Amino acid sequence: MTERMSPVGSIMWAVGQDASLRMVVGNLMILDRAPSKEAIADRVDVAAAGAPRLRQRPTAVSGIMSRPVWANEVTFSAREHIRVMAVPSPGDLRQVLDLVTLLELAPFDGNLSPWDLTIIEGVEGGRAAIFLRAHHSLTDGLHGVSLLRRFIDEPERERKATTQPAPVTVGDFPLAPDVVDDPLLEWELAHRRRPGTVNITIDVAGAVAGAVRPIANGVVAAMRADPVDAVVRRVQHSLDVVDSVSRQVVVTGGRLSQLSPSRSMNSRFEAFSVDGARTAALALGGSRNDLLVAGAAVGLGAYHEKLGIPCTELRLALPARWRHATDGGGSVVPVRVEIPAANQHPGPLFGVVAERLNRARHEPALRVTELLTSAVSRLPTRFLASTMRAQANTVDFVATSLPGIRGVRHFGGAVIEKSFPFGPRLGSLVNITGYGVDDRLDVGVALDPSAIAEPELLIECMLKAFEGFVAAHGT
Question: The whole model's pTM is what?
């Protein structure tokens, strides 16, 4: 069985060949004890049986303009995707994260589907950790959450034992009802694309023209048949698209931060939790995603201030999802939005951040971006990498929040105490990813150690910023 890779996925696969733009997403689970490799392999076999992408690898096809295809592994074996390692006992979270840094750099086996799982033993208190990573072309954050639910022990039995609504499908992976029933995904479910195909050309100018042409045709039709106010509205809409493109597709001026990310392939990983995140976000009039972005921006701003570097705003890359009919993951187009980073009163600042994020998700340029993505995906890898680096040079940080695993869950018989997501830096200073779990956010941070010379200070600033927002809703 083969299936052509989606435009977004093929871009991520090609760009990921550049070591400085590694496209790897990960998840670190802290377990109450070390599970056996055999128990984990059994669970992986179950997960792979229901998710064919876990048994497929990208394969190049002839033709300079052709996208790769997903082809089945010759003989799938869950055990070939699993390794067992250990930190010096009793290992703390910092030692586990340092090992994750090394694991994230390891290349994927070209003969296997681009994902693997590492059992990490020797964690203090008799605990263990599991680091699950995958190439971004195989899955994005939302698909990854649904995929993660396939690995844990309970879901299959729970779905059979209870009556639940049919799952919503996004890409290849059905989303479990507890993923769908989350305020973070209301925009996602309301704005998914209908199944269909997109005619693809490498004429980028033609792609832009193709998006603008219907607008122009609409203006002409309005002039013939509509009242003057309708004509004005259509003309204003076309101007809005042009203005949006200038903000999203043709960004100039570089980063807003004076810190300069390196082209290093290394990342440093951090992890922490923010208790009371959901209660605070709702009380402030937004979501945990708004809180994650606001806390990250203010924390980064405070870090700049402590270094004596002026910083009032930072440019965020925010994943805005869109669905392609044959997409098996990585169906994400980022929008960029400037976020205030000054340490102002948390309440009003939160409102500004929430409003800007909401507006960014409805950018008219997203329509043009989809067409451009289809066109750009056919370009040679060297051009894709240079294009991605140019885009990265306009972004200071990446952030997104996703629904995490609820309730007590097990993996290979061991209890999952916490789970931290990690996204690729994509050439930015830092990528902050959060799982919304109960009333908290479990946050994973991937930062550029060359640009962030004092990572402990940055995390201290972020934690203080989040504490300020959590405390603000009660004032």
Answer: 0.77
